[in-house]
Design brief:
Elements lengths: L18 H14 L7 H8 L3 H10 L13 H15 L5 H30 L9 H36 L4 H5 E11 L2 H7 L2 H21 L3 E5 L3 E6 L2 H16 L7 E13 L2 E3 L1 H12 L4 E4 L1 H9 L7 H13 L9 E5 L3 E3 L3 E3 L2 E5 L2
Parallel strand pairs: 4-6
Antiparallel strand pairs: 1-3, 1-4, 2-3, 4-5, 6-10, 7-10, 8-9
Family: Belongs to the adenylyl cyclase class-3 family.
InterPro entries: A/G_cyclase, Adenylyl/Guanylyl_Cyclase_3/4, Nucleotide_cyclase
Protein name: Adenylate/guanylate cyclase domain-containing protein
Length: 366
């Protein structure tokens, strides 16, 4: 949205020519619900904001400069007006409004890419005789767009309600940003070798299967998927027991899938800073380091998470103590305490940037 020269390879900066471009413009009008009619300068002026602020919003949403092409619509003007209005009303600071634009742009860009690359592409196969994929795409988008839009808003409201509930339960203002969480990384072993051995389509299917399985398991057992990185997923949970259960479930599920390579998981517990849906801090770094040193098909946890599991009664302090408790309970004619997990201390070792740590091997009891 820069008033300078247009980027040569930016589609919005090039006037359409030919049948394919005409279909692309029809699709754009259908999706945006408006005609191109504004240059960036005109859009900013109509929205009542400076070109500089409009450009910052545009870049934050993930879009390239379009020079002075008449490529913007009434919807772009309305979006600028809304964001600027939130700033003027004092509901958002300008940096926060930029963050809103950036986080929304990044999230929806990935969603849109997935839907076009996988979803829409799959629906246009096989092609109808005499029709191109782009010609088939138009009626499909026309039918699907209202339903997908409604579903997107529904999921967003559901996620917003869940996130708001977590913040309200945080207890104080500090915990709303810096909270004590359990953070876990799950990493496919030998992924680099797989990239050299598998065809691109096979590799894509493997990654999609891994991410889908991990996302479903994390959600089903009360965790939150923070992000996926191809061969790695990052998740968080409010309590140590939930994070431990998810880590073991991931190992068990992947081990039962012959198409999947081995998995290793590292989990740490402590203060975490949250920003734009991501998590940062020493606890996150420690979980990542534990993952890199974990044995295949195993879960390593840090001392803080091990201590939390014993405090909540999810794991015994030691197997010897558990045996003593069981013997004492038996003498009293009572049931022995039941623990979900077992913890085995591993050798202390130096971890780059974090000093010496003592990992614990997490397993199921019984």
């Amino acid at each position: 949205m820069n008033p300078g020269s247009a980027t040569p390879d930016t589609p919005a900066a090039v006037e359409p020519a030919g049948e394919d471009d005409s279909i692309a413009l029809r699709l754009e009008r259908l999706i945006l619900g408006a005609e191109r009619q504004y240059t960036p300068f005109q859009a900013a002026r109509s929205a009542g904001v400076s070109v500089e602020l409009a450009t910052r919003f545009w870049h934050a949403m993930g879009f390239a400069d379009i020079g002075q092409a008449k490529a913007l619509t009434e919807a772009d003007v309305l979006a600028l007006r809304r964001l600027a209005g939130l700033v003027e009303a004092g509901l958002l600071s300008e940096p926060m409004a930029i963050q809103v634009a950036r986080s929304t742009g990044q999230t929806t860009a990935r969603l849109a890419d997935w839907q076009i690359d996988s979803f829409l592409e799959g629906l246009t196969e096989p092609q109808e005789p005499g029709l191109t994929r782009t010609e088939i795409a138009y009626p499909l988008v026309e039918l699907l767009l209202p339903e997908l839009e409604e579903f997107l808003v529904y999921v967003y409201r559901r996620q917003l309600a869940a996130a708001t509930g977590r913040v309200v339960q945080a207890g104080d203002d500090v915990e709303m940003v810096d909270r004590r969480l359990a953070v876990g990384f799950a990493d496919l072993v030998g992924f680099t070798r797989l990239t050299r051995r598998l065809e691109e389509e096979e590799l894509g299917e493997l990654v999609e299967s891994f991410e889908t399985t991990a996302a479903d398991l994390v959600a089903a057992h009360g965790g939150r998927l923070i992000k996926t990185l191809g061969d790695e997923v990052l998740y968080a949970a409010d309590d140590a027991g939930t994070a431990a259960e998810i880590g073991l479930r991931l190992i068990e599920t992947m081990a039962n899938d012959p198409t999947m390579p081995e998995l290793r998981v590292g989990i740490a517990f402590g203060t975490v800073t949250t920003r734009m849906g991501d998590v940062f801090g020493t606890t996150v770094n420690l979980a990542s380091r534990l993952t890199s040193i974990a044995p295949k098909d195993a879960v390593l946890v840090d001392g803080a998470l091990a201590e939390e599991l014993t405090r909540t009664g999810d794991a015994p302090v030691s197997e010897a103590e558990a045996a003593e408790e069981a013997a004492a309970a038996d003498k009293r004619g009572e049931a022995a305490p039941e623990y979900r997990f077992a913890l085995q201390p591993m050798w202390q070792r130096p971890v780059r940037g974090l000093g010496v740590v003592e990992p614990w091997l997490l397993t199921r009891r019984g």
